[in-house]
Amino acid sequence: MVRRGIANVLEGIGYYGVQRPQTTAAPFLLVWNFTKQCNLRCRHCYENAGPKPAPDELTTEEAKHAIDEFANAGAVALSFSGGEPLLRKDFFEVAKYAAEKEFYVSVASNGTLITEKVAQKMKEAGVQYVEVSLDGFENTHDEFREIQGAWKRAIEGIKKLHKAGLDTCVATTATHYNLKEIPKLVEFIEKDLHAKRFIVFNFIPVSRGKEMVDQDLTPTEREELLEGLYSKLLDNNCKLDAFSTAPQYAVTSSKFAFGPVVATHFTNKTATEMLKGRTRSLTEFIGGCGAGRLYCSMEPNGDIEPCVFIPIKIGNIREQSLVNIWRNSPVLKQIRNRDLFKGCGKCEYKYICGGCRARAYAYFNDLQGPDPGCSINQKYWEEVKCKGEHA
Ligand code: SF4
Ligand code: SF4
Q1: pTM, to two decimals
Q2: The Cα angle at residue 24 between residues 21 and 29, in degrees rounded to 5
Q3: Least C-beta-crowded within 10 Å: which of 92, 288, 358, 374?
Q4: Residue 72 neighbours by CB under 8 Å, 6+ apart
């Protein structure tokens, strides 16, 4: 895995030259929406998942072929998401196959199906890391997920994962629904659930999430939330790794002169500590939003997309090689050129943050548009508000 990772970076430098931020030879991480099927009905779901799988999902054999293809390309980490990935009957077989191909295998789950036996089977299959979504305390979570009892089952799932010795992360999508609950939730996750990591997902109004666009945080609310998270990361008494998928987290961290810079949300506390005291150039190498440079996603039917939140097909694994898609997609070329971004392209933080491309696309239908989620882009936030999308 380490060998493949180093080769991926070096080959990327060989092919693309040294860049700010760098593009690797193949995606370091692939997030695979393994099925469209889900037993919940969350309001913000980017996949519009429901009770049935999509009719054209990859078969087990095709799924294994895709894994071979990712390994040949040099990808390092594979994350199963969904829908609810545990609903697919071949999940353990496919996850085991990926682990045998030396992928770092992780799973994003709603947690409701994780019994002691399931947690054990995940471990035996070679899963190393599990992320369970929790969008607040019981009432908030169940209302948001539209299923009574979902919270209690997710909590049980997290406890079973902990007992099985799996690295566990709790993921919360921050919106006006739950913003005020987050500080208490962090404490609960650390002290009662003993999770290793807490990650705040940036809300992106895509798919079903479009219907609750008015619940998005203002730039100021997001900045205060990220500052609170970062103070947890710096606090030696807090055992939790506190991260966010908001690329502005790199900006928050860079403002603290003596703290480590959080170069990207695809990292952990140890890696972040290692960056402490290093020059800014290392952070600019990694560079905040990883879509189309370090990471991409795959739909249940094999469609490749730049990010799970960017619904643009750039190829299909049934028809093309991953390397061919990665090297030649005009969409990815657009995402990689930060100098041309509206708003973000003129920002001093563009190489460590770059803005969330999915939010730029969701709000302005422009992959090179501004991310209206930070105060530097306040005028674009006002524009969005004027369109009447926000309360
Ligand atoms: S303007 Fe864009 S690049 Fe700069 S901090 Fe804000 S989101 Fe990041
Ligand atoms: S577009 Fe970038 S910042 Fe936004 S969710 Fe995707 S990888 Fe993260």
Answers
A1: 0.91
A2: 105
A3: 92
A4: none
- Ligand (nearest to CA of 374): 1
**Average pLDDT over the chain, rounded to an integer:** 90
Token pair, residue 87, equals 């609903």
Amino acid in position 260: P
| Rounded Cα distance, 82 and 344, in Å | 30
**What confidence category does residue 27 fall into, taking pLDDT thresholds of 50, 70 and 90?**
very high
State both tokens at 78.
């594979």
What contacts 239, CB < 8 A, 6 or more positions away? 190, 196
With b for 16 or more beta-carbon neighbours within 10 A and e for fewer, the 180-217 pattern comes to ebbeebbebbbeebebbbbbbbbbbbbbbbeebbebbb
Ligand 1 pocket: which residues have CB below 6 Å? 248, 251, 343-344, 347, 349-350, 353-355, 371, 374, 376-377
Q: What's the length of the chain?
A: 391
